[in-house]
Amino acid sequence: MYATVDDMTARFGHQELLELTDTAMTGSADVTAVLTALGDATELVNGYVAARYRVPLHPVPDMARRWCCDIARFYLHKVAVPDAVKAGHDTALQGLREVARGVVQLQSAGLETTGATGGETVLSVGGRTFTNDSMKGF
């Protein structure tokens, strides 16, 4: 996974994770629910970045960690999604689309690319088969 429960807590606070996951009313955040959301978010990130980078990403770029947290936070909202959470999710998806298109590059030392190019088509052809001289008399 590209983010941890500690990353989620640092970004969004223990109270928010508690409110989103403590359906059993135990007074503790449901770590399994957070890990499931992070796993799902990681798979989504992989789906986009695999067009340009070898997955799983290692080391994990900060940008990918942030996107993973924002997407997982969105997934944890089961009923109503606040505008700020939806905006974070949408921003993450837009960033992932830009990585897949090659507009944005992930920054992390040692990150392996797949060698994908900007979608250019290269065509190499030999000389002409039929010329005016070769077609004389037809």
Question: What would your notes on this structure say?
Answer:
The chain contains five helices and no strands. By secondary structure, it is an all-alpha fold. It has one domain (5-101). The longest helix has 19 residues, at 31-49. The model has no long low-confidence stretch (mean pLDDT 89). InterPro entries: Phage_Mu_GpJ.
The Rg value, from CA coordinates, equals 23 Å
Low-confidence stretches: none
Biggest sheet overview: none
Number of helices: 5
Integer average pLDDT:
89
Strand content: under 5%
Number of beta-strand segments: 0
Series of H and E elements: HHHHH
Overall 3D shape: elongated
Helical/strand content category: mainly alpha
How much helical structure, as a percent, in the residues?
40-55%
* Whole-number total of structural domains: 1
Give the terminus-to-terminus CA distance. 68 Å
Protein name: Mu-like prophage protein gp36
Organism: Desulfovibrio psychrotolerans
Pfam families: Phage_Mu_Gp36 (PF07030)
